Amino acid sequence: MLIGDPVEHSFSPLMQNAAFQFRSINSVYLTVQVKSEGLEDAIKGIKSMGIRGLNVTIPHKVSIMKYLDEIDSTAKNIGAVNTVINKDGKLIGYNTDGAGALEALKIGNGDPTGKKVVLLGAGGAARAISFSIAPFARRLVVLNRTRSKAISIMEAIKKRLNIKIVGDKLTINTLSKELVDTELLINTTSVGMFPKIDETLVGGHLLKPKMVVFDIIYNPPETRLLREATASGAKTLNGINMLVNQGALSFKLWSGLKPPINVMLGAINSRLREG
Ligand code: NAP
Fold first, then answer.
1. 138-170 residue pLDDT tens
2. Whole-model pTM over 0.85
3. CA pair distance 141, 119, nearest whole angstrom
4. Which of 42, 93, 223, 227 is most buried, by CB atoms within 10 Å?
5. Among 235, 231, 260, which residue's Cα sits nearest to residue 248?
6. Which residue's CA is minimally distant from atom 9 of ligand 1?
């Protein structure tokens, strides 16, 4: 199941139920709206009902951690959990967002290894992705509207890894300066997401043919940022493969089985085609 607030627009039930069916697993993936004040009771219910696993979304990714019995080291570093498994009554938290994004970059020819990476945003997804790509990037620059959150990511990563990382406020000046020699630009903000599909944080003139531009938004599949990146000759990647890969990693954690990635991707794509 997926717990969060809101949850009704999530695509996760589509891909997880398609995967359960394909692997003949007698399970169903539901979305359950849980308000912040009900989280502790919901966790007790999950234990007492023996629910095998769950995904966690906004606003519970951080607050759930105090109710879990164990947290894997990656999720601990990131400071957020998006997947929980129930192992004989013991709830263990994981985070698959960062690994899902890294996998999407690798399969989409956007491998961050040795690259200068500029990451826009410093929310939950940004934190997870920063931790997963930091060990590989030549230099990582995190720019965010609220500067303190970019600094917090920078400091958390610096504590654990000896890499070149900068956190700063997202302004026209910082963006123009940093994008001059950027090889991989990642948008992890919600700017450009449905229904505000005409918004972008990056002027088209700053995008260059040598860049890979990864927008983790999947609805719409082509954001304004990606449209303008394509027009500038840059290579583009959208958030669909990240969504599928983070879901596939969750599926593997719950079931121990190989996730049917193409089936999961097919379920998402057919929903997106419906509009
Ligand atoms: P979040 O924790 O709420 O963070 C939102 C981020 O967007 C913050 O950095 C926020 O800046 C920034 N932002 C929002 N409005 C802005 C604006 N008008 N101008 C500049 N910055 C703005 O959300 P999240 O969980 O990280 O998710 C962010 C996006 O990623 C969403 O669109 C979500 O759907 C997508 N996502 C995709 C996947 C996938 O699998 N493809 C997975 C997770 C999330 P401040 O800190 O200044 O508020």
1. 999 999 999 999 999 999 999 988 888 999 999
2. yes
3. 6
4. 223
5. 260
6. 121
